[in-house]
Amino acid sequence: MLFEGTAFELNRIILVRILSTVVLVTLFLVAARRARLVPGRGQNVAELALDFVRVNIAEEIIGKATARRYIPLLTTIFFAVLAMNITGVIPGLNIASSSLIGFPLVMAVIAFVAFIVVGIRSHGALGYLRTTLFPSGVPWPVYIILTPIELISTFILRPATLTIRLLVNMVAGHLLLVLCFAATHFLFFEAAGALKAIGVVTLAAGLAFTLFEIFIAALQAYIFTLLTAVYISISQEAH
Questions:
Q1: pTM of the entire structure?
Q2: Which residues form a coiled coil (predicted)?
Q3: Are 210 and 94 in contact (CB under 8 A)?
Q4: In the chain, where are the structural domains located?
Q5: Nearest-angstrom CA–CA distance, 212 and 171
C-alpha cells in the first residue's frame, strides 16, 4: 500500500496489525482514564479481563508471592496475541495478524528473554545454567544424554514451539474459512443446477468455523501466556 520495495513497506497484514494495536491501546486507555471506585459496565469488563490473567495465569502458575512483578508482561502478551488473532474473523479485515511468522516470533522472543532474565536474576548466570542443564540428584553419566536434551528443550524448542503453535493454528483457521466461504460463493453464483443447494452446507460450515475460530483465537492467547508463565516459574525455581 505504501513504501513498496523498502524496509518500511506497508501491506495489508501490517495495516491490520497497526489497527489492532491502536484499538487495543485505545480501549485500555479509555478504561483506565474513566476508572471509578464504583465501576461502570466498561470498567467491569476491563477489570474482569485483567483479573482473568492475574488470577488464572499469573498467580495460579507463578504463585501470589511473586506473580505481581510479571503481571504487566503476561497481561500485555495475552491481550496482544488475542487482538492479533481475532482480526481473522472481523469483517473487512479477514486475516489473523498472527498468521504470518513475524508477530508470533516476536512474542516468542519476548517470552524467551523474559524467562532467561528471570532465571539469571534468581540464580545468577552460572547458577541458572547449572540448575537448567545439570539438574541435581542425577548420576553423572546420565548428564551426557540429559544435558544436551535440556539445552535443546529450554533454549531452542521453547521459543520455536511457541512460535509454530500460534502461527500454524491461525493459518489453519484462516484456510478453513477461506475454503468454506470461497466454496459458498462459487456454489451460489457459479455452480449449475442442484449444486447450488450445497452452498447452504458450506455456508453453515463457514459460520460454524467462524465461531470455532473465535474460540481458538482466545485459546491460543491463553496457551501462549500460560506457557510463558510456566517457563518463568520454572526459571525462578531450582530443579
A1: 0.91
A2: none
A3: no
A4: 12-236
A5: 14
